[in-house]
Amino acid sequence: MRKGSIRLIAAASVMALAITGCSSSSDDAANTDTEFEIFTWWASGGEAAGLQGMVDVFNAENPDTEFINASVAGGAGVNAKAVLQSRLDANEPPDSFQAHAGMELDGYVRGGQLEDLTSLYESEGWDEIFPSDLIKAITVDGKIYSVPVNIHRANVLWWNPATATKAGITKAPETLDEFFADLEKFKKMGIPGLALAGKGDWAIAHLLDWMLLASMGADKFEGLYNGSTSWTGPEVAAGIKNFQRALSYGNKGAGNLDWPDAGKLVTDGKAGFFIMGDWASAQWQSDGLVLGTDYTYAAAPGTVGTYQWLSDSFTLPVGAPNRNAAIAWLKVCGSKAGQDAFNPKKGSISARTDSDLSLYDAYLQSAAADWKQDRLVGSTVHGATGNNALMAAYNAGVGKYFSGGFKDNAGLAKDLAAAYEAGKA
Fold this sequence. Notes:
This protein has 425 residues and is of the alpha/beta class. It folds into two domains: 24-152 and 311-374, D-Maltodextrin-Binding Protein, domain 2 (3-Layer(aba) Sandwich); 153-308 and 380-424, 3-Layer(aba) Sandwich (D-Maltodextrin-Binding Protein, domain 2). Helices cover 46% and strands 11% of the residues. The strands form four sheets. It has a five-stranded mixed beta sheet. A three-stranded mixed beta sheet has the order 7-11-13, with helices on both faces. The chain has a three-stranded antiparallel beta sheet with strand order 9-8-10. Strand 4 and strand 5 (143-144) form a beta hairpin. 52% of the residues are buried.
């Protein structure tokens, strides 16, 4: 990767883990467990189809182990994380759970709730096959705490080619000025220019995360998380003003729509653009839609040449009841066979550097090429640059702004600043 900007800022004081990590003998132990429970938020569509691909690999290798998927539906894991934390607090962990790579792992590590997987990386050769910057994102004090199964791109613009043609739009907007001009064209056509999903806050927060990046550029955006850019300064104010303007082109009743519903407005020709991660493509394909015909894509305006990334990963909780089965699962998660069975259906690219790109569609092949050459910037809303405390406060602040009619720009900036401080506590 070039211009890598992936970070995991370790807490100044990390609590000692209950155990020191996976020993090589434990890693090599045969899986004699008769069941295995994972905890995810992949409950439907392309997410469930992708997971099943990896489960099939696991079942073939572990035919005597019953696979239990304790999924809790809800985009970005907003519902699942609360249930998971209650289980961890009660010392009733699943055998493995899904967590975004990056700062999202921070609270689990500081709480002593994850095992060190460094020796598993060494025994499986993952330290040579995963990009070094990605490994840094799951490392605290020299220890690795999860196994990434994919890379998603957050900053993607989606639209229906036929609808765009009717509106007089012949190419993807590359700048914010072009984006707003195209929103006007959709408006004159009589449809909302931008599909919005306000149910649950995170999808609107996802939109803001892109808009801040597009408005201030990668360096200033990253400065928000290293203290060099002020959350209440002019750069954020300009970004929020652009965000406010974009929201004004949105669909009515957005507060009742989840992201698949908002995306359907676009594929049905009832709205113009949709800013959403590339899991949207997997959802649409699971619904029978065709890439390039029913919908198409480009890097979101203002971020061409920048890849706003997130990564799903799996962990080994301290006290996992079926630890041998969990290690067997993690080996599948990190394997070439597991990742190539999972990602084409999930709508993401492999975290490994040796994936078989012939299995991936045109969008995913283009994403794989961009991942290798673009400027890499982490997603706030999906755990790369912010821990769970920051994300919860960030989403809540954006949700308050949106439900209040998106009028109080200064109030939103203050809430974002408070969210950043909450993540540091």
